[in-house]
Amino acid sequence: MSDHDAPPTLGLSTGPATSLAYHTGAWRTERPVYVDLAPPCSLACPSGEDIRAWLGSTQEGEAGFEAAWRQIVAANPLPAVMGRICYHPCQAACNRGEVDEEVGINAVERFLGDTAIARGWALPEPGASSGRRVLVVGSGPAGLSAAYHLRRRGHEVVVREAAAQPGGMMRYGIPAYRLPRDVLAAEIRRIEATGVRIECGARVESLDEAQAEFDAVVLTVGAGVAHHVDIPAGAAAKIVDAIDVLRDVASGHAPLLGRRVAVYGGGNTAMDAARTARRLGAQDAVVVYRRTREQMPAHPTELEDAVGEGVRVQWLSTISEVSGPTVTIERMELDEDGRPRGTGEFEELDADTVMLAVGQEADLSLLAGVTDVEVRDGVIAVDPGTLMTGRDGVFAAGDASPGSRTATFAIGRGARAAAAVDAWLASRVLPAEPVLREATADRLTPWYYSDAPQQHRAELEAARRVTGFEEVLTGLDAEHAVFEARRCMSCGSCFECDNCFGMCPDDAIRKLGPGMRYEIDYDYCKGCGICAAECPCGAIDMIPEVR
Amino acid sequence: MREVLEGSQAVARTVARCRPGVVCAYPISPQTHIVEALSVMARTGELSACEYVNVESEFSAMSVSIGASAAGSRAYTATASQGLLYMAEAVYNAAGMGLPIVMTVANRAVGAPINIWNDHSDAMAMRDAGWLQLYAADNQEAADLHVIAFAAAEELGIPAMVCMDGFVLTHATDVLELATQEQIDAFLPPYSPAQALDIENPSTIGTMAGPESFTETKYLQHLRFLDAAGVIEAWSERFRKAFGREAGGLVARYDPDTLDRDGDAPPASAEDLAVVAMGSVVGTLQATLAPMRAEGLPVRLVGIGAYRPFPREALKAALGDSRHIVVVDRALELGAGGVLTGDVGRALAHTGSRIHSVVAGLGGRPILEASLRDAVRRALADELPALDFLDLKAGGVPEPPVGATEVAR
Amino acid sequence: MSTVHIPFLQTGTLAVGGRLLDDAERSVQSHADRPSSLTKGHRACQGCAEALAARWVMDTAVEATDGRLVVANATGCLEVFSTLYPESAWKPPWIHSLFANAAAVATGIASSLHAQGRDDVRVLAQGGDGGTVDIGLAAVSGMFERNDDVLYVCYDNQGYMNTGVQRSSATPASARTATTPAVGRHPGAPQGTGKSMVKIAMAHEIPYVASATVADLRDLEHKVRTAMAIRGARYLHVLVPCPLGWGSQSSESISLSRAAVQSGIFPVVEARAGELTDVQRIRERADVEEYLRPQARFAHLFKPGGEDGLQRWRALAEANIRHYDLLGGRP
Ligand SMILES: Cc1cc2nc3c(=O)[nH]c(=O)nc-3n(C[C@H](O)[C@H](O)[C@H](O)COP(=O)(O)OP(=O)(O)OC[C@H]3O[C@@H](n4cnc5c(N)ncnc54)[C@H](O)[C@@H]3O)c2cc1C
Ligand SMILES: Cc1ncc(C[n+]2csc(CCOP(=O)(O)OP(=O)(O)O)c2C)c(N)n1
Ligand code: SF4
Ligand code: SF4
Ligand code: SF4
Ligand code: SF4
Ligand SMILES: [Mg+2]
Question: Residue C61 half-sphere exposure, CB side, CA atoms within 13 Å?
């Protein structure tokens, strides 16, 4: 061949992927960043559960159940109980409600709670002993939660309970058809197994004595005393407090109520009272309520269940007189402010028994003579951050303190009180609860979630329900629980759907492997915003690029 | 083995013996016989391990060739005239990409007016496309040139056109001796593409060059193109040794007296009138000039074998001291003269040469020996103008008959 | 339309991947070690769906062929933004020749490979709508008609974007382009013009024709995989929003594609040998406005006088819904 002094140019060819030399990141005016936001479910959960996380573990199926349960008991030691009785404000807040139906968080929680009981999973071992002793007064959900969380922190915990059995309202208020007692007992036993000592039939009479014995005291005495209204009543009138009836039933002494029962009030106690009446043989159970359905404090599902069992409700009605078996009712109407006022129209109703369910009060007799613990509006006043009362080392939580009167709130506040006690014992400042950014529904791209209706729990047939205290709602089986968990959209937290990684036109995202999430290569990311727009759960923010 | 063959058949068989991997073409006169013959050979298996692709246009024919060549196949196509211009964009592209495609151009006039007959205006339109252009003086050379073309193109990474006059050669029957399969196998190295779309060594071919690299790219192509002269010469020389006959080369020299082709013929001398031409007219000129030489007239013949790259040095060497040149040109640069004349003029710049351009044979007009002889005589008598149209008819084109216009009304 | 039937898993097959899916059930794009055949450092505009679709298509084809893939590319944005010398964003062997000849170059490659006995190596040709529907149509048609073993992919951004957004015959009616400005009595691209490349391809009765969008990766990957399992001429038409040409936000390229499909404007179909074999049903019906409004090229439709044009879009969507039964019998 001859000599050539010129090389061929060959179509100006070049090597593959030589474009890496060109950093397109310089074009960016906005940069994507991965964020972790608080989902509305957790923000609405008074127990402070990391719902998204434990639903996430549940999604894995069998392999994830125990991890999921452990994520729940990090906050709430009573999943099987709460999976039954919680009014689940988390579900009302759940973003999936805007897509189809909210995630059945509560049903999955129950499934995990029941699974844990069946498999005998133990609560986490307590931490190293602190040498400090704490007394918890009352063994309702607030007390149990406080005790559990204190014990986890290594403190020696004694719970003193006036009643014969632990559990507070869960034991003596909430009927067994909603909360079987063996479930409650199992979960309480598990708390005891961590070293919490529960002394029943041990009413605490004096705060000073208690303080002499313990380094700190948590008052979780609940609100177990019925509130009273004055109703003109004849001698033959049989008027009882609903809360007492429920307690008697729970103690095994079901009272005779007769065939026709009127329940006065519109809360959950009223609903349980009416439903209990039906189970005790009342043919006719009527709830008399002053306001409208919309204003009723009872949880809508409670009302539905009651109605499903044949309970009637008389809306906009007050009992003005009870005379023998005759109850006189005044019709009400709403004024401009939505408050009920009498119309002067009356009607009569036959009732063998009238049950009053117009609210409960705290029995604060142990504070008699204690001046530095303030009682305001019938409950113990506390510092909203630390839950400490006016007296050093004395804390309060649950129904006896301000706030919503639900078991879930009681658990959350019990846990908070435990943290506060722990900090106080260590002379530490308890950090304020962080203000979290919410993963609001408008951040989501719900398109990506499969169409999937909620897996509803089967209910006992209405006919069978009213004859006994058998549990009404059955649980989900594993398959359905997993399905339900998978309906969770993981609002505000990357669940590794690969959308950002797969949809970046600039191949600028690196996938780091299972559980490790992703990394943006800012050398090449042009800041188009597709990843943020197409992240199903809103876990990517676009923020202005500052150079 | 000597055989009686049509030019197109000779080319087709020789091409087949060069073992192309892909042959792709679109029919246009006067190229048709070549590709028809190849398609038959592809069907009969004579052309084995080769894909014959029938496409929908010349543009696609060249594009298929580009793809095939880039994918590692020896690629061949053939066209003419309108077809060459229809594929023009791809013709340039193949060269820019450095793909050694070989294409036969059965030279034909370019319309309008549409005309299927021979001249060189099609190939001339592609003179700057970056292809080698090799011109055949006769059918023996036409066939042989394809072997040289594949060899040179592949060594250089530059595509090559083998130009043969349409009809005059393609459809003419001669006694020819074709290179045999064994000879070609021994002569032509197997195609080993400098760049191939290779899954083992992937590369990106056909990038975009910005102002910062385009000039340099073109400069390198230019240097490479300059190299081509030596490469063509070398392969032609090798061919001569291997086959015992002359073909190709940059410039063809002819014996002063016999006018037979002779690479060792002396250069022209100062008193000689040199006639420069390319293509089949060289044969006519051989016949024309031999008797004039016998008369004692100082005339010499120089053939252009490689029009691209233009063989400036070889031409000057062959012309020796002659400063009086007649270029017989088969393509017209409107407003200027013969196209080849322009190249010759540029090659002879500053030599003080007198150059006449004789534009002849446009659109298939026969180039008669008598007419050529007349032109040469006039040149010798200093009566030939700088630009002359051979056998130009007085009165221009005939008037259309009137009937048609009346009917239309 | 996605083939793998996946039990309900949070996002099922709607998202790119999903930690709950078995590896084998995940999309090619979800793999950390995906080919990334068109990799970073290319110069496409922010949010260019053509760049995205090209990576998706090619990665799938690379996987389907076990890396034995050669690509021919037409002139256009895709080529220009990926291969400015001395850089190339491509990983597979790749060639660009001209605007109109990608299909023919691909035929040449396929012929060459066949002649070399390398039928294991497959060929993909790709170009923009201009390079396919307009200037390259003859070559594409020839490749189809000969049933050459090439998958041709058209990235349809509905205009000549590389040259500055001029009208092509894939530009929809009303769309403003540099050569169909939104001025005068009939602003934007004229009504009643343009052609359907999918229908043209189907008319060639080639083994496989499909349309897809960047709104459904699984569908697109499935179609590329299906195409690569077939020999002969195959055609895939992918709608690729172009933020620059459409006047949309760079972040909207996926959502616009989704709206195009869910409104019925862009039918996502599959056809074999000229017969329609599958149609992607509308999942959540969207109004045409959801597609049109975010695009500045249609801004005049939402100004006084635009009602007529808007009405025609609705009619087009309705016609598609009827013709392809996009609602699958639902009202
Ligand atoms: C009928 C009914 C149904 C309900 N249903 C629901 C429901 O479905 N979901 C829900 O979230 N909430 C429900 N609630 C509310 C919920 O039960 C309470 O909000 C919750 O139990 C409050 O917990 P606690 O720990 O603060 O108090 P409690 O549960 O009332 O426990 C307080 C305990 O302290 C003990 N105690 C009191 N004084 C002393 C003392 N001096 N010494 C020792 N022990 C003492 C009491 O015996 C009692 O056991 C219901 C309540 C009622 C009445
Ligand atoms: C023969 C020819 N005519 C015109 C052009 C100019 N040109 C280059 S790219 C292009 C538009 C490409 O449009 P399309 O194929 O739709 O691809 P896009 O850039 O929109 O992705 C044009 C007109 C060219 N390169 N070659
Ligand atoms: S979808 Fe999941 S994370 Fe979002 S609010 Fe509902 S339960 Fe919480
Ligand atoms: S798009 Fe998917 S993978 Fe990316 S951050 Fe969001 S959830 Fe995680
Ligand atoms: S999709 Fe890619 S280029 Fe766009 S913002 Fe996200 S990381 Fe950056
Ligand atoms: S003009 Fe359009 S198609 Fe071209 S690179 Fe930009 S976004 Fe992509
Ligand atoms: Mg386009």
Answer: 32
CATH topology of domain A21-36+494-544: Alpha-Beta Plaits (3.30.70)
Side chain identity, residue A287:
V
DSSP annotation of A12 reads G
CATH of the domain at B92: 3.40.50.970
Looking at residues B3-12, what average pLDDT do you find? 98
Measure CB to CB from residue A8 to each of B98, B202, B234 and give the nearest one. Answer: B98
Domain boundaries, chain A: 21-36+494-544, 40-121+444-486, 133-224+362-425, 227-358
Mutation to probe ligand 5, out of A523, A526, A543 (largest number of atoms < 8 A from CB): A526
Label residue B64 left, alpha or beta by phi (over 0 means left) and psi (-120 to 50 means alpha): alpha
- Tens digit of pLDDT for each residue in B34-63? 999 999 999 999 999 999 999 999 999 999
- Pairwise CA distance, residues A245 & A255, whole Å: 7
**At what angle are helices A181-193 and A105-119 packed, to 10 degrees?**
60
Quick one: pLDDT at residue A3?
58
Rounded to two decimals, the pTM is 0.93
Domains assigned to chain C: 23-324 (3.40.50.970)
DSSP string over C22-79: -GGGS-GGG-TT---SB-TT--PPTT-HHHHHHHHHHHHHHHHTTT-EEEEE-SSHHH
Would you place residue C20 in the very low, low, confident or very high pLDDT band (cuts 50, 70, 90)?
confident
pLDDT digits (tens, 9 = 90+) for C236-259: 999 999 999 999 999 999 999 999
**End-to-end Cα separation, chain B, in angstroms:** 63
Q: What is the ipTM of this complex?
A: 0.96
- DSSP bridge pairs for A350: A326
Separation between Cα atoms, residue A264 and residue A426, nearest integer Å: 48
Interchain CB distance below 8 Å, A10 and B156: no
**Amino acid type, A366:** L
Q: What number of helices (H) and strands (E) belong to chain C?
A: 11, 8
* Nearest-atom index, ligand 4, CA of A534: 1
